[in-house]
Amino acid sequence: MGTIFKRGGKANRGGYWYVSWFDYTGKRRTECSRTTDKATAERIVAKYEADAAARRSGAIDATLERFGIEARRPIAEHVADYKAHLEARQNTSRHVALTIAHVRAIIDHCSATTYHGLTGAVVMQAIDNVRRAGNRKTKDEARRGPMSLRTCNAYLRSIKSFTRWLWIEKRSPHDLLVGLRGFNEETDRRHLRRELTAEEIGYLLRHVETFTTPMHNLAGPNRAMLLRLALGTGLRASELRSLTPESFHLHDEPATVTVAAAYSKRRREDSQPLRADLAGLVRNWLADKPRGERLFATMPGNTARMLRSDLEAARAAWIADAKENTKERADRQKSDFLRYRNAVGEVADFHSTRHTYISGIVAGGASVKVAQELARHSTSRLTVDRYAHTTCRMLWTRYLTSTTRSPGRPKEASYVQLVLTMLRLTSRKARSAWRSKQCAIWCEMTRRQATKTRFAWP
Questions:
Q1: pLDDT digits (tens, 9 = 90+) for 203-219
Q2: pTM tops 0.85
Q3: Which one in 58, 74, 267, 404 has a CA-CA gap of 20 to 30 Å to 105?
């Protein structure tokens, strides 16, 4: 039975009536009726009681009623709640800010006031508008081109995670964007990374060891050790920035370096093995380092710019080493040795050290599972397709040293299979290169093999 009353006693005779009733779950509820008329307050409490009885009998679906209430709320309130949810899950501030920025950008382009405005067609059109607008950080509009499909996928993942959260939290009856599929990034890759060769690594480390500039915030020896650890462990820049002397276990067998879960990308404690020669260099380098302090705390935020300037300085020194030899100097200027961006458009930024590490693992004959574990990837496809750079020389060496061919199988059949493998692997990574120079080399290899003549690599 519902009741009405006033608070404050006789002093509040002209105040609002309060109504009290039991809802459909049996919980007693009390609300202000916002009216000073007793008859109106009685009708309000009677309505609340009737609704509670209808819900208990099933005449009114409480779940659908909640969906209706949430659907009428402004979408900005849902976005604010979603941001609080991301922060409560201990996501990094950068991840939260980027995700919410993507969600708000899509909502603005959709002109949505409630979440019902986020339909699949409208969201795809909004992403297309964002793509055509280009990167607003580029001030010169003439140079501002459309965004890459990889960036479009980032926007799509953010808005889909928002609508999925609405469904999980019972704010919408279904996931509004569950049917949307991502774009094919392979057709529009803008930032192709390459691995560094052993010769490039050796010359770069020797140069960086003696090259110190205030712009990098790190002395040459410390920067050289940073590169050695990146190339020898595959750790990311943020993970390297978190290392302290206590992170290294150099007396274990094998020696390892540990990244705390708070700094690992996959949010779990990771231990990477160290080669014996690298462990010896690290041991000597740590001799005078204070305990408990981060080793690379002053590491610049833009690590790509740091490595690019190191590559340019090392390349300039390498070209200068030619001295008076005019032909040698001209050849060095034309080569891609220590060049930030090579002839096919692949770049060597700081994350390329991770590509180099994983490519070395695969080139050493490790299984796919071992390569995936050392790369700390969720799928082996990411390890092999994106990070492992298979070269023509590597495949040719495998062919020459292979002993798995059956005696009855013609050697030419294995050779054709090798060429097809080269084409399949390289078509995703350097189409413009193999269509011209490399394709010509492979055709020449096939022709000479068929005539049983020796082929010398250029």
A1: 999 999 888 877 778 88
A2: no
A3: 267
